[in-house]
């Protein structure tokens, strides 16, 4: 006897399905597809009960669940190529991506495979049979030559991909609201859509379509419309039978059946089907009026720019031919050679040219001009077309935006501290590998602690040791590393009454103070080691002393002096200093000193800090592209932090802005409505909504700065002045040809970029006036 299902038996899958169906036969809230079980509930409490019941039934028959593959209390699930939630269902974007990246078919078998994938999603794709008709007729061809595969097939292939990318959400039906059905018929196919109107919003429940058979193509137009009605009633029978509904179609379709002198058996069957339903008829030919806007544009009536005698031609003015910036092709064209197409044709023209190779806006404009086509605002329309392309949104270089700099402010010493970990370092003789760096925001006083590891237990002990000496702060700020985000640190801060604030994930600039002191600490230690790398922790105390006795640019004062309200003792002999004998007088002097420090020194330091931070903010805002707050509901993509290869997209999405938090980062939700597990800084966000989206083309790289391997490039953007140039890192370039051209100009060689062994190229501007910031 087998203890489990053996491999190789063909009937195992169906047998297992029958077994699992019998186990769950009396459980109406659970469904199974082979070994996948989905449990659905109206509330969380009900869901717990349902899950317990299902697990109990499985346990009773010795079926074991794989806990690692189980997901509980999900608001949405991916199931058999679809994403299902309380709102409705939509296509699984992972499956859609496979279809969008499908190469153009080269054989009839390729067409069959592509249509097989697309047909699986046909419920979400209106009029699919009509769109696939040009491909369907080539299913049984061998090799697809240019004589067989022409522009008609190219257009159909592109339109199918657009349909997949624009597939709407199909809502769950509300049985308390009326249903509506719209039908349509063409020379090649019939289609129908079922929907409801709730709160003046059309909610689609399903799309159905099929191709006409050879004999059905010979039907009259009215008979095809009647066939579409019968087809819709059968397909949407579970929703429509027994419920009054409204049918939008051509009146003549139903009168046709009563005008036949002799009704054949097919007509009688159609009549029997129609009489089973209770509906009222409203005349409205076509189903385009109830499609989503994005889909309805894909089904506009086809026209042509060539040979249409009824099309009115609008000629452009002669100034293009005389423009100095016009290329040779355009200068050779006379105005009478350029035609302006009708507005409804322009989007299709642009999309066709763009999808040939995801061309940039200038290339699209040049291509249209070379074909004798132009219209007002052509460049802007090309930019809008690129902006609507999801693949281009993922890969195009974008200008990064920043919110105005907002400095961290503390009111008194040790009120607010920042912590970070430096390392791993070379293992020291004492067995240390890491440095805990603690910096006071107000004074910039730092404490450095060597540690053998960065486990939560070690961090907590080191932090407790430091706070026992200097007291507990009101706020501790750290990154999202596991050494800081754990139960031990959480308990310690809660018991101590400390507000533990976490910075935005993958955005170290948010913890810039600690990051800078980590860099300063390592820089000083490395300079002192002189090759004895395993002695680095012996220099930690002197490094801490050096940092705390160095005035910072923030307040031009030693951190030690502000921290302890006195000057540090110098390396000299204090044996001749007299010891005070009148302790009462000394106490009065000390209290007076503290009072003066609190009433005079601290207010002056606060004013100095405020002035310094204001100057830094102004400098930052002048040198960075400052953006306005992104409105809630905006569609955005976010930087792909897991990008490992140049073929990976720079951005992933789409996501929706929920709101901005107090730290300036944004809370986002994905397409299923689930909150992202981390907040996103504005520099990682790329807005793609129509109102705010812009795509920029790189004209040239002008300059560079930084160090080998970490160069920043000054980018000149096409169509923008020099004042709009921005510094961009190499990782923001999907196409590195502008960078190679830049180094080619500088070095006089091909594809040569300086490395650490080469002399750093001389900058094109003078940096002698720049001063190194001391903080």
Automatic annotation (TrEMBL):
User: GO CC terms for this protein?
Assistant: nucleus
* One Pfam family it belongs to: Integrase_H2C2
Gene Ontology annotations of biological process type: DNA integration
Q: Which CDD domains match?
A: CD_CSD (cd00024), RNase_HI_RT_Ty3 (cd09274)
Enumerate the spans annotated as Reverse transcriptase domain. 1-84
Write out the entry's keywords from A to Z: Multifunctional enzyme
| Keyword Transferase assigned | no
Top-level division of the source organism's lineage:
Eukaryota
Q: Which residues form the Chromo domain?
A: 696-754
The protein's matches in InterPro entries, at most eight in alphabetical order, are given as: Chromo-like_dom_sf, Chromo/chromo_shadow_dom, Chromo_domain, DNA/RNA_pol_sf, Integrase_cat-core, Integrase_H2C2, Retrovirus_Pol_polyprotein, Rev_trsase/Diguanyl_cyclase
Q: Which PANTHER family match?
A: PROTEIN CBG26694 (PTHR37984), PROTEIN NYNRIN-LIKE (PTHR37984:SF5)
Which residues lie within the region annotated Disordered? 744-775
SMART domains for this protein: CHROMO
What segments bear the compositional bias annotation Basic and acidic residues?
Answer: 756-769
* MF terms (GO), sorted A to Z: catalytic activity; nucleic acid binding
Instruction: Output this protein's name.
Output: Integrase catalytic domain-containing protein
Organism of provenance:
Rhizopus delemar (strain RA 99-880 / ATCC MYA-4621 / FGSC 9543 / NRRL 43880) (Mucormycosis agent)
Which stretches make up the Integrase catalytic domain? 409-567
